[in-house]
């Protein structure tokens, strides 16, 4: 079985989710870095792999995939190693629900509205867009509140074992808590704080996430 190739910048939350899953399955892979800030994702050759100009794109054995949730499910099913989805229909549905919540309701307030203006823009010499920050606070708080409820007292979003939902949440939440607003929101989420500490200790997170 050939080594998969992941196309995208290593700092992307979605690229990180894919690489976390590959590490959890014990699958070596190649990362093809993109000059994302320079707009390489919107140009060929990347748009030949992902016509919508987003990341990541994924190649394996002559097949090209995009959309992170599809790539994650492919990784879980195509490679040997521990299963990364729960075994029961209800638990799988809940894991899928969490992944969809990240994409539909969590990424934009956490990353676009909070992390980028609060952390990334100043690091590049820009100014913080406080209107964006203010717009992100309420939906980010709801995102965290719902994750806290869905996690409950379980160690992981799939129950006893780590699953794709955990790997999808981790990169977004990592950026969220790097902001003062995110840290404040997390003060009211003790279950999620314990979960974050637990997941950060996994070898996959140690290898694929920023220190």
Structural notes for this entry:
- The protein is of the alpha+beta class and 211 residues long.
- The chain has nine helices and four strands; from the N terminus they run βαβαββααααααα.
- It has two domains: 5-78, 3-Layer(aba) Sandwich (Glutaredoxin); 89-208, Glutathione S-transferase Yfyf (Class Pi), Chain A, domain 2, CATH 1.20.1050.
- The protein has helices at 13-24, 46-49, 68-78, 89-123, 130-151, 164-176, 180-186, 190-200, 203-208; strands at residues 5-7, 30-32, 57-60, 63-66.
- β1 (5-7), α1 and β2 (30-32) form a beta-alpha-beta unit.
- α4 (89-123) runs parallel beside α6.
- The chain is globular and about 45 Å long.
- The model has no long low-confidence stretch (mean pLDDT 96).
Summarize the structure.
This protein is 57% helix and 7% strand.
The helix count comes to 9
The biggest sheet, with number of strands, parallel, antiparallel or mixed sense and barrel status, is: 4 strands, mixed
CATH class of the largest domain: Mainly Alpha
SSE arrangement, N to C: EHEHEEHHHHHHH
Q: What fraction of residues sit in β-strands?
A: 5-15%
Overall pLDDT, averaged? 96
CATH architecture of the largest domain: Up-down Bundle
The assigned structural class equals: alpha+beta
Radius of gyration: 17 Å
Shape: globular
Poorly predicted segments = none
Subunit arrangement of the protein: single chain
Strand order of the largest sheet: 2-1-3-4
Present the secondary structure layout:
Layout: E1 5-7, H1 13-24, E2 30-32, H2 46-49, E3 57-60, E4 63-66, H3 68-78, H4 89-123, H5 130-151, H6 164-176, H7 180-186, H8 190-200, H9 203-208
Parallel strand pairs: 1-2
Antiparallel strand pairs: 1-3, 3-4
Helix pairs in contact: 1-3, 1-6, 4-5, 4-6, 5-7
